[in-house]
Amino acid sequence: MKPVLEVRGLGVSFGVLRAVDDVWFDAEPNAITAVIGPNGAGKSTLFNLISGQLRPTVGRVVLDGADVTVRSPHLLQRAGMGRSFQITNLFFELSVFENLRLAAQRLESKRRMLLPVGRPGPARSRVDELIARFDLSAKAGDLAGGLSHGEQRRLEIAVAMAARPSILLLDEPTQGMSHADTLDTARLIRDLSRDVTILLIEHDIGVVMDISKHVVVMQHGRKLAEGPPAVVRADPAVQAAYFGHA
Ligand SMILES: Nc1ncnc2c1ncn2[C@@H]1O[C@H](COP(=O)(O)OP(=O)(O)OP(=O)(O)O)[C@@H](O)[C@H]1O
Ligand SMILES: [Mg+2]
């Protein structure tokens, strides 16, 4: 199967620190590839390199066969990349509906750009679909800032899905959630992977083992190991570096 995303020797340094150092892996279509590793391993920085927030000093990012290295986040979004951030990144003073509607704008044709946002059309339909799928109908008119933490994190995934990405990058979507919310979110992410390729940073190893097809382990900016969850988990180097601390 042709990978949706190919990460080829990516690297970036902050001063003397090689935050991401020669990282290679593929993300297969309609599957979850998890990126795990201790705090400071370089996971979020890797996402920033892939999604254009940061410019790599070396390496390439290939999306659907096209080299997209050093494209701006905005162009990458147009090329089919959606992402959520480790720190909540919503418009708190806008409603749930408005957050989603803004994120879905790319689905509207240029000639409809100046029409009222509430009008029926591709963006409006997408928003309605996401509100139902993410169980946010009772909250559609509420300000995003007034939602519970779990609801905000769920809304962020919905926002990242709004423009129908071909790949979704999720940076610790379950961070700070209760155990029950974590399990619900894991189920939701697994269901989403039927429609979209997912790259997931996740600290909950139970979740990673449960829902991912492929696991990439990072340590000190480098890829320590990769493979199916059970194989990675059994790797002595991974156990020492990661599970040993659990
Ligand atoms: N903009 C920056 N400037 C300087 N150093 C940075 C910058 N961003 C990250 N770092 C450093 O790079 C390293 C990797 O950080 P990163 O946030 O990618 O780790 P992480 O694996 O996502 O960690 P966590 O699990 O805590 O989220 C850390 O040592 C961090 O302090
Ligand atoms: Mg991080």
Summarize it.
The chain has 246 residues and is of the alpha/beta class.
Core attributes:
alpha/beta, 6-stranded mixed beta sheet, 4-stranded antiparallel beta sheet, 10 strands, binds magnesium ion, Rossmann fold, 246 residues, binds adenosine-5'-triphosphate, single chain, 24% strand, 2 domains
- Would you identify the CATH architecture of the largest domain? 3-Layer(aba) Sandwich
Q: Domains counted in the coordinates: how many?
A: 2
Low-confidence stretches: none
CATH hierarchy class name of the largest domain: Alpha Beta
For the biggest β-sheet, the strand order reads: 6-7-8-3-9-10
SSE-based structural type: alpha/beta
Mean pLDDT: 93
The overall strand count is 10
Q: Percent of residues in beta strands?
A: 15-25%
Bound molecules: adenosine-5'-triphosphate, magnesium ion
CATH topology of the largest domain: Rossmann fold
What gap, in angstroms, lies between the N and C termini? Answer: 34 Å
CATH H level, superfamily name of the largest domain: P-loop containing nucleotide triphosphate hydrolases
Gyration radius (Cα, Å) is 18 Å
**Sheet of most strands:** 6 strands, mixed
Overall spatial form = globular
Helix content: 25-40%
